[in-house]
Amino acid sequence: MFPLHRFAFPICLVTLGLTSVRAVAEPRVLARYEARDTLGRPTDPDPDAQACLAGLTWAPASFPVTCEGDDTSSHRVIVRFPSPVPSGDAANDHVTMEWHRPFQTRADDAKAPAVLVVHESGRAMPVGRLFARAFQAEGIHAFLIHLPYYGLRRGASDRPESDNLVTVVRQAIADVRRARDAIASLPEVDADRIAIQGTSLGGFVVAIAASLDNAFPASFIMLAGGHLYDLVVNGQQDAANFRRDLERAGYTGDALRKLLWQIEPTRVAHRLDPQRTWLYTAAQDRVIPLENAQALARAARLDEDHHVSFPGDHYTAIVHFATIVRQVAARIRDCEHGQADVPPSRR
């Protein structure tokens, strides 16, 4: 058995003195909304991409969205909705998001843009919370989703069994895509401007979730890459720890290759809109080496303006945080309303 928080490798940049969300008292229901999946049945002319998509989609349905908190004026609200790919664990299958509402109120009651933040692999999600609070300060609705077996989704079992890795990652991807439709149901949010941002583990999930149907008008992938098999086999630091976990679970050689191929982002990254996708890479990263980041950039057809490289490694990248937040926030505010024209084969 190995922890999901080692998958796609930890990025323990800061601790921030945060405590676990499990210590938060159960809030009361403030509002209920009804949402519906907008994900259809995406198709791709490439047979391999189509095979990958077939394992990542689900039957669209209506679903409830609840908002919980201390009061209606709170700047931190808990949003819940059911996972479209249930695992059978009741606590885990109730997807949770922390809604960090902007501090500044708007006199004209205009709706504000939003960003779905997908956290790193740290158990307390410190980097995800850091991004969410920074976007909140920028006047953007920030929704920090708790991935499977994280935060308020940790029930009797706080980690999956090793043989359930692909199922859990598939659930994470589906939850992130459904989260877009849950956010769109909230009356304070501009439903045409819901961006997505993810770091490390979250960046990997974003790379695939945003590839499904280009539902997000802007996608920001940070400290992530492709060619997972090579990364796990040859990676250092936390990649090596993850490799040892998989070896103990019986995954080596072809078995490991087949396992990781099911969730390989370069199989579908060509479906991303290169004009609405940005990849941020640390040039000296030894957890996600530059060549793996470049593999993802090539698959997504990103030019040099959309593949941003900066000095540092997987952990010292935090020194660029303020600059990155300003860039991302400006692009979220300026992103086009509505989905750009995308060929039907990529939806």
Description of the structure:
29% of the residues lie in helices and 20% in strands. The chain is α/β, with parallel strands linked by helices. It has a single domain (4-337), classed as Alpha/Beta hydrolase fold, catalytic domain (Rossmann fold). It has a 10-stranded mixed β-sheet, with helices on both faces. Strand 7, helix 4 (201-209) and strand 8 (219-222) form a beta-alpha-beta unit. It starts with 27 loop residues before the first strand and ends in a 13-residue tail after the last helix.
The CATH H-level homologous superfamily? Alpha/Beta hydrolase fold, catalytic domain
Number of domains: 1
The major beta sheet can be summarized as: 10 strands, mixed
Taking Cα atoms only, what radius of gyration do you get, to the nearest Å? 19 Å
The DSSP helix count reads: 9
Instruction: Please give the order of strands in the largest beta sheet.
Output: 1-2-3-4-6-5-7-8-9-10
Percent of residues in helical segments? 25-40%
| DSSP summary, beta strand count | 10
Contiguous low-pLDDT stretches (5 residues minimum) are 1-24, 338-347
What is the typical, i.e. mean, pLDDT? Answer: 86
**C-alpha geometry:** globular
Secondary-structure-derived class: alpha/beta
Oligomer: single chain
Strand content: 15-25%
> In the CATH classification, which architecture applies?
3-Layer(aba) Sandwich
Q: What pattern of helices and strands is seen along the backbone?
A: EHEEEEHEHEHEHHHEHEH
User: What's the CATH class, please?
Assistant: Alpha Beta
Fold-level CATH name: Rossmann fold
